[in-house]
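Continuing the batch. This is chain 6 of the set; chains 1 through 5 are on the previous pages. Same settings as before, nothing changed between runs. Recording input and output for traceability.
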Amino acid sequence: MQLSQHPMHQLESRSVSSTHGLYTLSIDYVGAGYPGEKFQRVIEVPCDMPLASLHGLVKQLTGFSDEKIHDFYVASSIRGKKLWFKRNGQWHGEGESAFTSSIDQIFLCKTKRKLYYSFEFGDNWIFEIGRKGDVVEATADCDYPRVVHSRGMRPLQNRLQ
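Output for chain 6:
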């Protein structure tokens, strides 16, 4: 089984106004059946980033395609009761309203729940997305989002084939 390393310089990035601020997020694969060192990426992202953009960023970091069902949910743990982000009450691809919500709306809530990203429900790729530390100001000469730490190999999407 081949796993490829993520090229950290290929993130689509943009300049960020210092009024928005940045979150440092840790994206960790928390599902079962992953060979070797677990996938983790620590990234800095604008606080006003919509969930749709976070979805795109996770796809870039993992190398996953966009052809599979995916969604975000919050829960107290990976096995806890899930609160799914529904898109206009519809199933996959029929409306994107929840994906326009910013990550700020999630991480400003004072709750012990965590944000999870579920991808390809059959293979059950689950990533825990946690906020690390306080909001920080953007550095003038940097583009965001950007990877600040990388551990483990990038997952192989079709690992069961």
